[in-house]
Amino acid sequence: MALNGKLDCRTSINSDGDLLFELFAYKLSDMTNICPQIVQSIDLVAGQWGAVGCVFNSNYTLGGEKRFSKTKIEAIDEKKRSITYKAVEGSVLETYSSLKATFAIESDGQHKVVKWSIEYEKRSACTPQPHALLALFTSLTKLLELRCSLVPN
């Protein structure tokens, strides 16, 4: 059994995705006000919000348990509206040797979707795939999309 893997999930959105991209790239700390049941805190540790190399700490809830993550923004593509995050410390690295998550807004011509991809390396063959983390990202996306739909243009 391979220890490396990748999971993808697509979520349809009703907007063009600009506000979602802005939130996930530049206004991560706003998530604590929008979804406090999922994200309790996000604090900038190094760099500047929305810049490659930016490092932030987050406290969040996953499966009813409080978790911590220190995360680095590894890549941002404004044109493709994608962001890649890499876990550098925290709860997720107790289970996985490495984990990267990529947020991207895609279009099939008529509809927009948010695609989350998680690339990971398990610590052992018994380690489950990070489906719960992917579900958390999807829930967060849906809550933020709902909030964005309520914001007047």
TrEMBL record:
Where on the tree of life does the source sit, at the highest rank?
Eukaryota
Q: Name one Pfam family in it.
A: Bet_v_1
Q: Which SUPFAM superfamilies match?
A: Bet v1-like
Q: Which residues form the Bet v I/Major latex protein domain?
A: 2-151
Q: Which GO terms describe its biological process?
A: defense response
Question: What name is this protein filed under?
Answer: Kirola
Q: Which organism is it from?
A: Sesamum radiatum
